[in-house]
Structures are given as C-alpha cells and as structure tokens.
C-alpha cells in the first residue's frame, strides 16, 4: 500500500517516473506542501501528518525523487499550495476569522514561514528550475 503523499514512497516514485519517461514527458510537479507538514526532513515544519508511520530518519523522499528523476532526464518542479491547511499544524496561522481549511496568508509570520520552506526546498534541490506557488488560489494572486 502506498503512503500519502504518494511521491514519498520509493516504489511509487520509481513507477511514476518510468511512466512519465515512457510517455515522453520530461517534467514532474509533485505537490510538496499541502498544509499538513513536509515530506522532507525540515528544520522549520513538522513531518506530514499522513506520513506519521514513515520514519523521518535515513530517508529523504524529496531528495530521492529528485535524484531519481534527474538520473532519468526528468525535471522536478516542487509545487506549494500555500493557503491550504489540511491538519492542525501551525494553529497560530489559522485564528478565528480565517477561512476554513486555510492559513492566514495575510499574516507576515506565515508568509515568512512559507518563504523559509520554499528556500529549504531550493537548498535541497539546488538544480531546480522553478517552484510552483499555485496562483489559482486568490490569496496567492493578491
């Protein structure tokens, strides 16, 4: 059984990248932030709540994905869904009045945290071309 997020499971990554390669695509855009924690060893945010049964030591799912993809000639563009909040992490950024299942993107400390997480992923990848910040969400456009 695969783990959520799926790309944090080695077997799923291997199958997915092979499928991407065999169909002629050369880019994979995994969503690395969905408001429930990280799927990389972060110094700034907790481990993804859906990965609680997966050990956080001796395996960096994001690094594995990127290394494997680059070996196959596939670019990886991590995607952050900034406003979405799918767990009870960082309650200080979801005070009363904040829309349900959302973070308060108007909070300067939250924006600083997100910038820190994006920078952390950039440091992990070092050879990435871009990071997606889901402009379809109204607060991101503003």
Order of helices and strands: HEEHEEHH
Write down the overall mean pLDDT. Answer: 84
Instruction: Give the overall silhouette.
Output: elongated
Are there runs of 5+ residues with pLDDT below 50, and where?
Answer: 137-142
* Helix-strand category: mainly alpha
| Tally of helical segments | 4
Radius of gyration: 15 Å
Write the layout of secondary structure elements.
Elements: H1 10-22, E1 27-28, E2 31-33, H2 61-71, E3 75-76, E4 79-80, H3 108-125, H4 138-141
Parallel strand pairs: 1-3, 2-4
Helix pairs in contact: 1-2
How would you describe this protein?
A two-stranded parallel ribbon has the order 1-3. The chain has helices at 10-22, 61-71, 108-125, 138-141, and strands at residues 27-28, 31-33, 75-76, 79-80. The chain has 142 residues and is mainly alpha-helical.
